[in-house]
Amino acid sequence: MTDVDLASARENMVGQQLRTWEVLNERVLDILERIPREHFTPSAYANLAYADMQIPLGEGEVMLEPKVEGRLMQALDPHPHERVLEIGTGSGYLAACLAQMASHVTSVELHPAFSENAQKTLDREGVRNVHLETGDAARGWDDGRQYDVIAVTGSLPELHEGFHRALTPGGRLFVIHGKPPIMEALLITRVGEDQWSRESLFDTSAPPLAGAPVTRTFSL
């Protein structure tokens, strides 16, 4: 696909996917229209960078649909002074988008090869306020810091509180909870020392976060 075609696809993504799915925050729309998603997409899928689909990355991971990424960004609404934690770096695209909204993004990825590739792309794109970590964050991530915003990009079959206390007071957590075929995207806000509110955002489906805890059931 040519640069002209990709530019048209990008415009169509904003007009036909994002706006019709209630992504109306102009700051979010501007970022998603401006950042070249095809630079973060595996070469085999570059022509589909702006399609309304999940793009496979390997190892069971995907780039979420643009409309889901847009709703995530809109719901979390990072402010320029805030710090973001992303669980599941993947291609690095969402980290690059969140970095345009916040002061700093820490992104954690289980697969070292993904982190390495994402770092190369972020460097090429001139994104300097993203720090990548490699590790298993399926049950939470405790690096001694608290974050204003946490985005979990893989689904959690069972909702746990491994990320709740990593939020600052007033901090927001985005998670996709449940099992196929229908899952629920949630916005969880820390409203007190031991209190969190929960808002249901929309129904969707996404591959589970690798290693996410699941209670095993036994039958005779």
Mean pLDDT rating: 95
Largest sheet: 7 strands, mixed
CATH level-1 class:
Alpha Beta
Number of strands: 9
GO cellular component, one term: cytoplasm
Protein name: Protein-L-isoaspartate O-methyltransferase
Keywords: Methyltransferase, Transferase
GO molecular function: protein-L-isoaspartate (D-aspartate) O-methyltransferase activity
List keywords for this structure.
220 residues; two-stranded antiparallel ribbon; globular
Describe the protein's architecture and organization:
Keywords: Methyltransferase, Transferase. Belongs to the methyltransferase superfamily. L-isoaspartyl/D-aspartyl protein methyltransferase family. This protein is α/β, with parallel strands linked by helices and 220 residues long. Helices cover 25% and strands 27% of the residues. It has one domain (3-204): Vaccinia Virus protein VP39 (Rossmann fold), CATH 3.40.50. The strands form two sheets. Strands 5-4-3-6-7-8-9 form a seven-stranded mixed beta sheet, covered by helices on one side. It has a two-stranded antiparallel ribbon with strand order 1-2.
What layout of secondary structure does this protein have?
Elements: H1 3-18, H2 26-34, E1 55-58, E2 61-63, H3 66-76, E3 83-87, H4 93-99, E4 104-109, H5 112-124, E5 130-134, E6 147-152, E7 167-177, E8 183-192, E9 195-204
